[in-house]
Amino acid sequence: MSDWTSKLPEAARAFIADRRIDEVECVIGDIAGVARGKAMPAAKFAKQTSYFLPNSIFLQTITGDWADNPFDAFTEPDMILEPDWSTATAAPWTADVTLQVIHDAKDQQGNLVTFSPRNVLKRILALYAAQGWQPVVAPEMEFFLTARNLDPNQPVIPPMGRSGRRAAGKQAYSLSAVDEYGKVIDDIYDFAEAQGLEIDGILQEGGAGQIELNLAHGDPVRLADDVFFFKRLIREAALRHDCFATFMAKPIAGEPGSAMHIHTSVVDTKTGKNIFAGPDGAETEAFQHFIGGLQKHLGAGVALFAPYVNSYRRYVPDFAAPINLEWGRDNRTTGLRVPISSPAARRIENRLPGMDCNPYLGIAATLACGYLGLMNKVAPRPEFKGNAYIDSDEIPTTLGDALDLLEEDAALTEVMGADFCKVYDSVKRNEYKEFLQVISPWEREHLLLNV
Q: Looking at the whole model, is its pTM more than 0.90?
């Protein structure tokens, strides 16, 4: 093995075995969580000492347009990409032997680029580490399998199952429903195994063709990397079987939306104990303060949890989606849920993020809000008992309003990083402006001849 292949994780080495590596993909996640980068022959990758991309990739919108540069509009200097060898993994759907490696973005002075989403998450973790804390997270991934949609003007419809019927909704936890697209699930398992990614469980969700994939708890950066990788492998598995996989928050009218619920606890690095549980197992002040920080700052964080105009279609009552910042024990109508668990596993589930959010930013914003609660000892409101699907003005209803709230929250902006927030605001306001130029079928149907 060459020097660089000796640094690969076990799963990547097993994938290679005795085969020659054909290609290496140098990958980095942009503001949207889209995989950007470059692919190169493995022989060239082995010889090259530096890898470069312009920092303007973080100003590219989801439509491929470019947002205004809030720093320097006339230059787009190259970043130095540094491979994180712990992330090296197979791309098992390719015809040749290909590896993917996530890279960290640094400027030419060797400093982490502050508006790279992966670096934003690392920034938050450094704040926790300075206090002797280590966050532990467990994301849940919800997504839809759909029929191929080749015309954006046509509605998305469920895929055809092996029975010859289209996938049906309202079949949550049905094993037969999952079996309808079992071949896609089989490829998801196979790809994940080849990549060394751990799946905690797969189940049928409430929507037609909607699946939930759970990941085991662990380090926030590694779990964000896993979600990043999973999105790509799930799409590839679906395409093998003549369907699409979508992570849109609300792809089908009348069906539930897709969330990325984030379970979070915090461990004392010296003792290894969960700071949310006292020696007698009772809930601690830290537990209360973390909830208080979430309640105080998550409203501003919605801009990160719901990054597109479509995201806000998910926040409707009675569709298993949060419309509030209340908290409750084992209460799925509250935006913040405390699952039933042992004291050692006590955690808080943030139910606001949609599956369309960037996993690095969704986890970072959750941890940032909790950190502010811990540091400022923010007391939460009393636990909400009963049905929390009530009118609430705590969650913004449009992307524009959400961006305004984020801009106004000086504490959250400081923790997330002022430069990052400027870049994020520029990208998202550009996308929102583009959306407002589109006339929808609803407008044509109801306004064209009636107003």
A: yes
